[in-house]
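Standup notes, structure subgroup. Blocker cleared on the histidyl-adenosine monophosphate input:
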Amino acid sequence: MSTSQAIKAARGLRDILPSERAAWRLVEQAAHGVARRFGYQEIEVPMIEPIELIERGVGADTDVGSKEIYRVITQDDAKPRLALRPEATASVVRAYFEGGLNQAPQPVRLYLLGPMFRHDRPQAGRYRQFYQFDFEVIGDGSAAWDAEVIELAGSWLAAIGIAQVSLELNSIGDANCRPAYLERLKAYYRPLKDQLHPDCQRRLETNPLRLLDCKEPQCAPFKAAAPKITDHLCEPCAAAFAEVRRLLDAGGIEYRLNPYLVRGLDYYTRTVFEFHHTALGGAQNSLGGGGRYDGLATAIGYPDTPAVGFAGGIDRAVLMLAQEGQEVVPEPPAELLVVPGGGELTVAAAEVARIARVAVSTAADYSARSLRAKMRSAGKAGYRWVAILDEAEAARRVVQLRDMVSGEQREVGWDELPDRLLAGGNGL
Ligand code: HAM
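Run returned:
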C-alpha cells in the first residue's frame, strides 16, 4: 500500500456516524430504561478475555467457537492467550463468581450494552463488530425467570416501537434427557447422510442438534419427520417448559412453539427463544435470542449454578426501525451557537459560550468565514438559537440572540443569557 492511499475501515467493521447516533441512542436508552424497570443492575466486563473462557463458553463445535473467534496476539505471546468476546454471557458468569456476586442474595440480575466480535462473512445485518443488549439472571433455576427474561426482551422491542416481531419458543432438554434424544436424532438422520449438505453430514457427528436449524434446501424435506425434542423431554424439563408457557399465557405474551429452534451456542438447557423480525427473511432475521444455560458455570470451572438470559442485537434493532419507517430526527450538535462576526472576538465568543453553557448546550463558531456563511451553516445544522456579536457589542457585553425557528432577534446582555435561554427565549 502506498503511503498516500486513504486507509479505510477493515471489512465488516463500520462507523456509527453522528447522524445515525440518534436512532442508536433511542435503542440504547430503551434498553437501560427497561432493564432498570425490571430491577436489573448494570455491569461491565472486558472485551478481551482468556481464550479458554470464550471457547468453553460458546462450545468448540459451534460456528462461533470453530471459526469466528478473533484471537489476540501480543508481543509477549508465542501463541494467543486472549480473544475478543463474541458474546458476553460467559464473561458475566465469570464476573458473577470472581466479583463475589454469588454471595449476594440470589438470583443476581445483571445487564450490559457493548460490542461483540465475530469473524463471520459480513452482509446486511451481520457485522464483525456488533452491539448487544445482554441481560442475565444467575443463581436460580425457577422457570419464572425464563418467562421474565422473555417478557423483558419483548418489552425492550416494544419500547423501541418495533412491531413486526414474532417470538419463537422451544425447550432443548438437559443433560438427563438430551443425550438419548440426540441418539434418536442421529439414528433418524444416519440413513439419509448421503443426501445431506456436507455441513450437515459433519454436524451429524459433531453437533447433531444443529441439523434442526439447517437452512439448506437439500436438507429441508427430512426435517418434518425428524424426532422432536419436545416429545422426548424428561419429566422435570417437561414440567419446566409447561410452567414457562403457563406464565407467558398468563402475561398475554404471544409465542410460536418451534421444535426446530436450537440456537447457535452450546451452553443452553431447557428453554430457548428468539425474536424474529417478520419482514426480514433468511438467517439475519433474529433480533435477539436467549435461554436457560444451567451448565455454563461448570463448563468454565465454577460451581454448578442455574441461569437464564438474553441478548438483543442493537445493530439489527436500529436497522429495523428504519425498515419499519420510523424516523429518528438527528439532534443538532448543540442548542445554541455563538457566532462572532469577525474581528478579534475569539476571547469574547468563548466567554459568551461559557456563560450560556450553564443553561443550554452551546457551541461556538471560531472559523474565519464570513458572517453570512456562518449563519447559513448554523441554519443547516439545526441550532435552535444563535448568539451573534460584533466588536462594539462585545465591548458592551451584549449579543443579538436569534430564535432560528421564528427568525426573531433581540439584544440580550451576556449575564441575562442563561435565564433568557432557560425561559425558552421569552420576550424575543
Ligand atoms: P446470539 O443469538 O448469538 O446469542 O446473539 C444474540 C443477537 O445478537 C442475535 O439475535 C443478533 O440480533 C445479534 N447478532 C449476533 N451476531 C451478530 C452479527 N454478526 N452482526 C449483527 N448482530 C449480531 C448470544 O450472543 C447469547 N449470549 C445470548 C444469551 C444471553 N443467552 C443467554 N444469555
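Discussed briefly. The pocket of histidyl-adenosine monophosphate is lined by residues 87, 89, 118, 120, 126-127, 130, 132, 134, 136, 264-265, 286-291, 293, 309-311, 313, 315-316 (CB under 6 Å).
Next: hand off to the docking folks.
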